[in-house]
Write a structure and sequence with these properties.
The protein is α/β, with parallel strands linked by helices and 429 residues long. The protein folds into two domains: 283 residues, Aminopeptidase, CATH 3.40.630; 127 residues, Alpha-Beta Plaits, CATH 3.30.70. The chain is built from ten helices and 16 strands. The strands form four sheets. The protein has a six-stranded mixed beta sheet with strand order 1-2-6-3-7-15. Strands 10-11-9-12 form a four-stranded antiparallel beta sheet, with helices on one face. A three-stranded antiparallel beta sheet has the order 4-5-16. This is Succinyl-diaminopimelate desuccinylase.
C-alpha cells in the first residue's frame, strides 16, 4: 500500500473519533454575539492538541473590537514541528457560531447523528471543518513522523462578526507572517470537492436621517425621521437595486445570485428605543427625531470602493434635492476589498491534486459571496497563498437544522492530509 493510501486508510479508521470530536465542539455553545464560551472551547482544543504533541498558545485579543472582561476574545494557536526543516501549513478555523434562530427540529447543541449527518449550530460553519483539520493533522503525524516543516492549527474568535478579535489580531501580532507561515487552508463549508479562492468585497455603513421631536398627537409640529428614511428605502428600490442587479463579475462566485452586486438592509431603528422585555407599559407618543439604517453592500472585484460609496452618497443627495428638511449622515462601519488567490498558488495546486486523487474528479474553483478570515491573512498578514477548503454545504450555514455530512468530513480530512503529504515532504514511517 502506498504512503498516500495508508494515510487515507488511517483517516478512515479514525471516523468515529472525527464524529465525536465534531459533536464535542458543537456541544460548546460559542454564540457570537456576544462571544460566549470562547475560553471553554479553547481549553478543550488545548487538551486535545497537547496530547497530539502540539505546542499550544492561548491568546486573548486584549483591547480588540468586541473584547471585554465579561466576553474576552480567546484564541488558540497550536504548532507541531517536524524533525526536518521546511515550510509551514496552517489550518485556521473560527470557533464562534451565530444565533440559533427558530425552526429547529433537532437540538442545536446536541450534535445528534442522523442518517450519516451531524446536526447542530456550527456543524458545517465550521466545527466540522475544524474537526476534519485536526484529525487530518494527527493522522499525517502518525503515518509520516519524519515530515519536513511544521503544521499549525488555530481556533479563532469572531469571524462571524468580522474577525477583529481573532485572525485580524493574530495577523497584527505576526502569526501569519509569510516568513513563518507559508500555506493557509481555512476549512469553511464551500463544498468538499471545491476550492474557494477568495471572496467578494464588503462595505458596511450606517445611514442616519434626522427630524424633530414633537408630541405624537401633533406630528405636524415635528419632523419624522422615519418618514425620511422611508424615502431613502423607496429610492433604493426605484434606482439602486435595479442598478446593482446589472453589475456582473467574472469571479467564479457561488451561488449564481451572488455573481451580481448586492446590498442587504441589515437593520432599521427609529424613534424610541425598545424597552426591556419585562416592561409592560406603552411607548410614549413622540415624533422620532432620528432613524438609523445599517446597510451591507457586497461588491465585485471589478468595482472600485470609492464608486461603491458614491452610489449611496449620490442617492442620499438626490433624495435631499427632492425632499424638504431632509438631512442625513453616513458612517462607515467596515470595508473589505475583494480578494482572490491565483490558481497557480502552491496551496491551490496541492489541494487540487488531492481532490483529484481522493475523489477521482477535477476540483471546482469558486469564490465566496461573503467575506471570511482570508481578508485579514491577505490584508494584514500579506500572505497570498491562502484558500478556503472544507466539508459542508454553504447554503446550510446560519440555517435551522444545520448539519455536516460524515462522509464529507472524512473525505475532506483525507484531502487535507494528502495536501500535507505533498507540501511537507512526508516520508515512509
Amino acid at each position: 500500500m502506498s504512503l498516500a493510501d495508508r494515510l487515507s486508510a488511517e483517516i478512515a479508521a479514525r471516523r468515529d473519533d472525527l464524529v465525536e470530536l465534531c459533536q464535542d465542539l458543537i456541544k460548546i455553545p460559542t454564540l457570537n454575539p456576544p462571544g460566549e464560551n470562547y475560553r471553554e472551547i479553547c481549553d478543550y482544543l488545548d487538551r486535545r492538541l497537547l496530547k497530539s504533541g502540539f505546542h499550544t498558545e492561548l491568546i486573548r485579543a486584549k483591547g480588540a473590537l468586541g473584547d471585554s472582561d465579561r466576553y474576552p476574545r480567546w484564541n488558540i494557536v497550536a504548532r507541531k514541528e517536524g524533525p526536518r526543516g521546511g515550510e509551514c501549513v496552517h489550518f485556521n478555523s473560527h470557533i464562534d457560531i451565530v444565533e440559533v434562530g427558530r425552526g429547529w427540529t433537532t437540538d442545536p447543541f446536541g450534535g445528534e447523528v442522523i442518517d450519516g449527518k451531524v446536526y447542530g449550530r456550527g456543524a458545517c460553519d465550521m466545527k466540522g471543518g475544524l474537526a476534519a483539520s485536526i484529525v487530518a493533522a494527527e493522522a499525517f503525524i502518525a503515518i509520516c513522523p519524519d515530515f519536513a516543516g511544521a503544521i499549525e492549527i488555530s481556533g479563532t474568535a469572531d469571524e462571524e462578526s468580522g474577525g477583529f478579535g481573532g485572525v485580524a489580531y493574530l495577523a497584527e501580532k505576526g502569526y501569519f507572517n509569510p516568513e513563518k507561515v507559508h500555506h493557509v487552508i481555512i476549512p469553511e463549508p464551500l463544498g468538499h470537492d471545491r476550492i474557494c479562492l477568495g471572496h467578494r468585497g464588503v462595505w458596511w455603513a450606517e445611514i442616519e436621517t434626522y427630524g424633530e421631536i414633537a408630541h405624537g398627537s401633533m406630528p405636524f409640529l415635528g419632523d419624522c425621521a422615519v418618514r425620511h428614511m422611508g424615502a431613502v428605502v423607496s429610492e433604493m428600490e426605484r434606482s439602486l437595486f435595479p442598478a446593482l442587479a446589472l453589475k456582473r463579475t467574472d469571479m467564479p462566485v457561488v451561488p449564481e445570485g451572488a455573481k451580481q452586486s448586492t446590498m442587504n438592509i441589515n437593520s432599521i431603528h427609529g424613534g424610541e428605543a425598545e424597552q426591556d422585555p419585562d416592561y409592560t407599559g406603552l411607548p410614549s407618543p413622540c415624533v422620532p427625531d432620528s432613524c438609523r439604517m445599517v446597510i451591507d453592500r457586497r461588491f465585485l472585484i471589478e468595482e472600485d470602493i470609492d464608486e461603491v460609496q458614491e452610489e449611496i452618497h449620490g442617492l442620499l443627495r438626490h433624495v435631499q434635492s427632492e425632499r424638504e428638511n431632509f438631512t442625513f449622515n453616513v458612517r462607515e462601519l467596515q470595508r473589505v476589498l475583494p480578494t482572490m488567490t491565483e490558481k497557480s498558488a502552491p496551496v491551490v495546486q496541492s489541494v487540487a491534486r488531492a481532490i483529484s486523487d481522493i475523489m477521482g474528479k477535477e476540483a471546482d474553483y469558486v469564490v465566496s459571496p461573503g467575506t471570511y478570515d482570508q481578508k485579514h491573512i491577505d490584508r494584514i498578514g500579506r500572505l497570498k497563498n491562502c484558500i478556503a477548503y472544507g466539508p459542508g454545504i454553504l447554503d446550510l450555514a446560519h440555517k435551522p437544522d444545520e448539519y455536516v455530512g460524515i462522509d464529507e468530513m472524512v473525505q475532506s480530512a483525507q484531502v487535507m492530509a494528502r495536501s500535507l503529504l505533498d507540501l511537507l515532504d512526508g516520508r515512509e514511517n
